[in-house]
TrEMBL record, chains A, B:
The keyword Cell membrane does not apply. This is Acetylornithine deacetylase. It comes from Brevibacillus panacihumi W25. One of its GO terms (molecular function) is metal ion binding. It comes from the Bacteria. Its EC number is 3.5.1.16.
């Protein structure tokens, strides 16, 4: 082990400059949804040059679009290919997926950026740009792990499947397509920005829309109507109560530090059209957290039950039930047991490289790991460089030291997990 | 008296057909805000042909626009003249204003109308069309009262000032302009649709906008933010409490039948942009009722105090006070004492014509009477044909019998109030 550790470390140092340039190139592709072609083509070429079996495809078709886990604002994916590169093992070892997405959220207001949003500029050891932390930096850690092992002449027994996917930010259609294409493995690592914490469990989430009804009247005789705004207060309170009940059940110590492990957030409220009229309709839109191990359908049923119970608080709701619609984005929760063998390997490498024991937590957000666990029998662990606090914000950046430290941990983890062929 | 009563009744019956045709003509002018020219020109010609001193003008100028009671979405009134016709008395009698507006609210969705919205069609004694009830029917009662007295050769001692104004639906700039032009009288009648009830008091109202602040965060870690939606629940509750306190003070028996004499209606709520984000701003828009005799400024101060008191309930509001803006429409409340001599006269004529005592109530909405009372020393009583329930709705109509009954009451009231010259 000690030997591999110092060999890997030295090799990563040698690759540092070229790898930083590569991450800069990746960040300079403004790969927002629908515009991922150029970065994916570049990654495919690189994987091919490394001798991996490369698969680049534009997803689509009924099997995908009609799949119960398919979520996307679009159904056409020209300009947004997926790329998978397989580094075939010699056989007899455990396989692993290194999954990461290349789609980034929009830059937002450019005036709030100190550098242009897709600059890739490096300052004080930080590489700046939209997607640097979420999650091109993590993807580089994965790729570099493979490059370093190849440079050291390592031959792994198990397959390493490098996945560069699209559509994670919209709900995971890219990873769903890899699964439908047949990709699976004995485990997966997803280097989303966890600030190098290990997340064996990831919260899922799904969006809902509620329509709360009232009856219109003139504001001067508002008692002749029924205010949908007043009724929506009761709905918001009922959702708050549901959130409390659901979170009181969350006894998992991984969630001990979170004030609300699986929040229900009502993010949008909109109702009424005229100050002097009683509002007859209010729309609420929100996001419901789903616990690791919980079935999405069970969470949906619990929401519906909470809304139906409103009829007992206020007979208005018996005659005018709140309409519930599940729409838009959805991320499946994921969970790996803490005694999973990949957890122990990761822990050991983490201590070896950083000198400290990794922090283990549960993520407050979903990743594509939920799909891999639920549909591909592939336990997924989320750990990566980058910090959530800068993801989706102006002046997003990543600490380059963390990218390389993570690459070292991944390289050593691949050796342990997949096994090294002596032949 | 008995003599006048039967003479007036017979003359109204003679005028019925022509008067119905005139009301049809008025309703066929689609005199929504900005499009009142043709009806006002027609009315001015008629008043001139009746021998009244006619004044037609397009209002404007600094005195109007900068007046503290000026409220309008526009500052230019081309196409929207006011018309006043004065029937000069012989002297020594009390003067009276007959005030009514010709602006109508938009027709709305034409598909919901059984006849075209400006048809003026008569079916089963009802005349249909936008503005029939609010308030061209009432205006016809006023005009017909003058015509009938003239036909009977009556010469009144006091002046009768017939006012056909614009902009009532937007807050009363038309009547404000008549006041600034110097028109005033010893009393005023306003035949808004009261279903022939007498409203000596009219509720005022004004629009407000509240901005409730929060702090944004990701929905999955919503405890890191502050939801403006949750905070707005507290604001809505505080407004509800304020409404209760204000209405508990309303001991006037005229309001005894109203569940909430001076309602505060929150008609619009809007906040947040994304289901997965914590909303950082919620806008509330509403309409505050103002009691007859209450100063608008006092009501405003009471609202501000209620919002400021939120800081004691939740320290968030101390750091992030709710912003209060008074905007858009405003109607000044009005009040005439119940023992005002015009009240007794009206009551007597009402009994004479209908055989029953009039119902006296306070209106749940404002009229231009508030301005006449507050700024022109002209006590205003609101009484007219037409029913509030159909005003502003599709298939608006007026019962023609009520229009003619009201004309008789008005004609007899003018005789009693202004006095008849024997010379």
């Amino acid at each position: 082990m000690a030997n591999w550790q110092s060999l890997v470390h030295e090799q990563v140092q040698k690759e540092r400059e070229a790898a930083t340039a590569l991450l800069q190139e990746w960040v300079r592709h403004p790969s927002v949804s629908g515009a991922e072609y150029s970065i994916q083509e570049s990654i495919a070429k690189r994987l091919a040059s490394m001798g991996l079996d490369v698969d680049l495809w534009v997803m689509g078709g009924e099997e995908l679009i009609k799949h119960p886990y398919f979520v996307s604002p679009r159904q056409q994916f020209e300009g947004s290919p997926n790329v998978v590169g397989v580094w075939k093992g010699t056989g007899g070892g455990r396989s692993i997926i290194l999954n990461g997405h290349v789609d980034v959220v929009p830059a937002g207001d450019e005036a709030q950026w100190e550098q242009p949003p897709f600059s890739g500029e490096v300052l004080d050891g930080k590489l700046y740009g939209r997607g640097a932390t979420d999650m091109k930096g993590g993807n580089l850690s994965s790729l570099l792990a493979i490059q370093v092992l190849q440079a050291l002449g390592v031959k792994l027994k198990g397959d390493v499947i490098f996945q560069s996917v699209v559509e994670e930010e919209s709900g995971g259609a890219g990873t769903l397509s890899t699964i439908l294409r047949g990709y699976k493995a004995d485990a997966a690592l997803i280097p989303e920005p966890t600030n190098m914490k290990i997340f064996p469990k990831q919260q899922g989430s799904m969006w809902f829309r509620l329509l709360v009804k009232g009856r219109s009247a003139h504001g001067g005789t508002r008692y002749e109507g029924v205010s949908a705004i007043e009724k929506s207060l009761l709905v918001v309170q009922a959702i708050g109560q549901l959130e409390k009940v659901r979170n009181d059940r969350m006894t998992d110590p991984l969630y001990a530090k979170l004030p609300i492990p699986i929040p229900i957030n009502i993010g949008v409220i909109e109702g009424g059209k005229w100050p002097s009229s009683v509002a007859d309709l209010v729309k609420l839109e929100g996001r419901m957290g789903v616990a690791p191990g919980e079935q999405m359908e069970d969470a949906k049923a619990e929401m519906q039950a909470a809304l139906s119970a409103l009829a007992q608080i206020d007979p208005w709701f018996a005659e005018h039930p709140v309409e519930l619609e599940w729409y838009g984005a959805r991320w499946v929760p994921g969970a790996v047991e803490e005694d999973h063998p990949l957890m122990e390997i990761l822990h050991n490498q983490f201590v070896a490289i950083t000198g400290e024991r990794a922090v283990v937590e549960a993520s407050p957000w979903g990743t594509d790991g939920g799909l891999l666990t639920a549909l591909a029998d592939t336990p997924a662990i989320v750990v990566g460089p980058g910090v959530t606090q800068v993801a989706h914000y102006p002046n997003e950046y990543i600490e380059l030291d963390d990218v390389f430290r993570c690459a070292e941990i991944f390289a050593l983890t691949l050796i342990e997990w997949c096994g090294v062929s002596e032949s």
